[in-house]
Amino acid sequence: MRNFFSQFFQGRYGSYGMDKLTRFLLILSVIALIVSLCSPFGILYYVAFALLIYSYFRLLSKNITKRYKENESFIRIEQKIRLFFRKTQNNFVQRKHYHIYTCPQCKQKIRIPKGAGTIMVRCPKCMTEFKKKA
Ligand SMILES: [Zn+2]
């Protein structure tokens, strides 16, 4: 049986193991399936099915270079999304302690600690001064 599988996967993308994109697609299809079963979004059932087929298509594909590149772009996008969330989270934490002002001249973002009263803010980029209440 093991031999059969290794022969079956010979020269196919899946013979290198499951990549990140395939794993992601499979998890997504399971989530779509569960949601479709316990919600009125019946269409998700087809989405789940399509994702499953696509995952298998990737595993059985013989165009290894192309699948590899797909996975690479997926990882790049994933990193961008992660970075975006980290930035958003960071902004949220900063907003608790700082006011974020935008320079009227050059649109540079300037961070001022809260509770400083009315102050003159000088833009570090273009040296424009403007009054703000912190
Ligand atoms: Zn400025």
From TrEMBL:
Alphabetically ordered keywords of this record: ATP-binding, Helicase, Hydrolase, Membrane, Nucleotide-binding, Transmembrane, Transmembrane helix
Membrane-spanning parts: 21-37, 43-60
Lineage top rank: taxon: Bacteria
Any GO molecular function: helicase activity
Protein name: Replication restart DNA helicase PriA
